[in-house]
Amino acid sequence: MHGYLLETYGPPLSHAAKDLPDPQPGPGEILILNEAIGLNYPDALMVQGKYQKRPEPPFVPGRDCAGTVLAVGDGVKGFAPGDKVVAQVFSGAFADRVLAPENRVFARPAAVSPVDAAGAMTVFNTAYVAVAIRAGVKAGDRVVVTGAAGGVGAAAVQLAANLGAHVVGIVSSEEKAELVRRSGAQQALIITDRAEEPLKNAFKAQVRTAWGDDRGADVVIDTVGGTMFQAGLRALGFAGRLVVVGFASGEIPAAKANYLLYNNLTVMGAPLDIHFDEALDRLREGTAWWLSLLAEGKARANVTAVLPFDRLMQGLQDILDRKVTGKLVVETGARA
Ligand SMILES: NC(=O)c1ccc[n+]([C@@H]2O[C@H](COP(=O)([O-])OP(=O)(O)OC[C@H]3O[C@@H](n4cnc5c(N)ncnc54)[C@H](OP(=O)(O)O)[C@@H]3O)[C@@H](O)[C@H]2O)c1
To answer: In this protein, which residues make up the domain named Enoyl reductase (ER) (predicted)?
Structure first.
């Protein structure tokens, strides 16, 4: 196979692809002919040794991939050679052959290309955990999404809108607002001052009243953290829920328990990874649902660039340099 074997941690452009021995699936494993790789910010951290988990090199990094099953190991029940799949592995996706444990592999409809499936995998599954599993959004709910033009944010807007919720997205520019409206939000509010007091005031004055009354939102999906989280609490109405998805601002906020008590609010976390082990059936339902939305054109993976395999590390560098809007996907050149 051809892949990026990371021998030591270092900046993206210090790593190159090479020929490697073909892997064989062990018990419970699936060997995938990998056609497309979705790039995520954590991949850029991982190759530098800056991700929260640091596997000992040598290893092949990469998490989101899509292609066709080549072979299955003993005990695999749900998949057979020839099946079209999408997977999120802990490592190993930066290669044209990927070994994945069965709980990380999902059936892919023929109508969803490997590029779209790989581009959507982490962000749509994360959005599904936040919007459907944790917040329990239903038709008619009022939902605010912060960082709404980001990968997870745009997926959350689309999933909440497809559930029949009334969605308001928070963004920092008109270009991002346009993307959020196209994703199905009723409104996209451009808020540029991110200092705590102005942001709290903007949420009190504009966001909680965005639906024409002062009842407030049922749910805030927060991908930004920091001052955005503090302000997000101000948009919530009676029994409102704020779902912590991530900290794109780099700041981890703290909630005052008395504010939650007096205002009858819930704050909850939405980590994707734990759901592969603890709630796989719910995740499989969710993956099947959002893949069907992509297949029917009711949601979009927002893939803005497709790179050849030898430009993969340049893609990670572009993510670090914040040059990327939408999702970046790499084609390996492998074909089923
Ligand atoms: N819970 C999980 O399991 C899980 C899974 C995947 C990702 N995450 C986390 O979720 C967060 C969002 O991920 P993503 O893939 O959606 O990221 P992304 O595509 O980079 O989008 C993040 C958005 O946050 C906003 N933002 C505000 N301040 C920012 C800053 N200082 N730097 C960068 N962006 C900033 C930006 O929108 P504006 O400019 O409009 O504000 C941007 O569109 C990240 O913290 C990520 O680590 C969590």
So the answer is: 10-330
